[in-house]
């Protein structure tokens, strides 16, 4: 008997596999099958809201492709033909594979053989009948999308009608440093969004929260709206996913973080819609 799946837990070890883990996703609205390349809990950023324990700076380790393939085939068979939903007490209206999401315990594009892994997952999910009915998603901070090997992975993702969920939490240099511990400039990030959108369907994913009682500063809102105006003029990105924190951070700043009121999220979402974007909100 498994433990009940919850949107409040994204543990990558919940079913005892190395690369595969199930998630009840608020944003997807059902079962999301997570793929974790960063089994060593490494990332090239350190977001203050991150739930990964013992997070270290670095890249994903070399992947065992045979194990990844075996685990994915095994898990898909369990979900599609076994009693997975019963064991994990998944509500009836959530018993659908909404997507397979490359995410996990760090930045997945740090994997050296990223494109090969994207292709293997796509092939197996197609053979199992999961694609094209379910979505194929890459959740990324986008910081490495200027690299040819990562761009090749996006071309493969696009071949399976996949999409990029590009993390863009702040459009100010100070905000990116504070929230993501990222030294990458806003302009470089915008350029990477443009690159992603040319290779694959791309959405922006933005986490907003109250940091140290400051709420959502007006300066951050205005910078974000200005960034969207720039994007609108130069690419076809039109979908924004706004959300606030749902699970406790394990980073040193955790005690300073609080959910942003859903009313505040909704009000900001309306400002974004006025620019011509479609916005979803998860409170």
UniProtKB/TrEMBL annotation:
<dbReference type="InterPro" id="IPR007197">
    <property type="entry name" value="rSAM"/>
</dbReference>
<dbReference type="InterPro" id="IPR013785">
    <property type="entry name" value="Aldolase_TIM"/>
</dbReference>
<keyword id="KW-0411">Iron-sulfur</keyword>
<dbReference type="GO" id="GO:0051536">
    <property type="term" value="F:iron-sulfur cluster binding"/>
</dbReference>
<protein>
    <submittedName>
        <fullName>Radical SAM protein</fullName>
    </submittedName>
</protein>
<dbReference type="GO" id="GO:0003824">
    <property type="term" value="F:catalytic activity"/>
</dbReference>
<keyword id="KW-0408">Iron</keyword>
<keyword id="KW-0479">Metal-binding</keyword>
<dbReference type="InterPro" id="IPR058240">
    <property type="entry name" value="rSAM_sf"/>
</dbReference>
<keyword id="KW-0949">S-adenosyl-L-methionine</keyword>
<dbReference type="GO" id="GO:0046872">
    <property type="term" value="F:metal ion binding"/>
</dbReference>
